[in-house]
Structure of Nuclear autoantigen Sp-100:
Amino acid sequence: MFPEVRNQNQRIIYDIVFNHFKRYKVEISSAIKTTFPFLEILRDRELISNDFFENCQEAVRNLVPVQKVMYSVLSEMEKVFNIEFLDALFSEVNMNEYPDLHTVHRNFE
């Protein structure tokens, strides 16, 4: 396959996955009931900064509902969306901690 065709196919797949992610942000944020381990995984994989991590933790300490904080995190991740984020989101640890993610994950398959 020629490189431009492969790149075009990759772009189409990326667009489909990205649009799917945008469509399911509410479901994803609703599935994440606690900040740990989700935020720590994002920070450890350098997908979010320490400052952003601390801001999210502070919001939760100030009684902002976790799901709203998670929606904000997902909105930020949307700006720099990549496959590494999806790998982190659907990691084994997160899938075990947040069983409701299984339904969303099946929609990505």
Notes: Residues 3-108 form one domain.
